[in-house]
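Quick note —
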Amino acid sequence: MTEPTKMPVSAIVGERPYCHRHPSNFVELVCTARECKHRLLCSECRVIHERSSLHHKTLVVNLNDWYKEFNNLKGLFDPADNTSLLYQIEQITLRLSKQQEQLTESQKKMTETFQKLLKEFFEMFQGLNDEMNVLLWKNQKIHEDALGKVKAKLEQMSYKNCKKQIFNLMKSEFSSSFQQGRLE
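Predicted structure written out below.
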């Protein structure tokens, strides 16, 4: 078997480029899928590509058609060497760093809001605590005053305090009974 002669891989402007895997074949098709590893396809590569990447089948276009759409697709990859992956990684990195900044900023805001609400809740609870203490002291003072009045009333009604009055009452009763002669 004869080995195919190696053709130059670098393309000249205006000429169709040769396939990197099959240097004797011209590139006829381009796969426009973002995650595709084999962008430039010759007729032999197309069969291999269709077997390995079934879902890319609809994204394979003719090279001439692809050049017409290149301005729309050139941000995704460079046909000379596949830099689309690097471009996408950079874009993803930028998006992730922006999202991380947004997350840290929102986390700071959430922390500040939580601390503010916690402080307000503590102040409200402290105010309720002070108000309840004032009410409890007032109630206790009222109860103590009422208890003091009841004690004073009971003491006034006690035998000790009424003993003299009872004795005077008994003495006057005896003396009136004695004067009337009712005592025997």
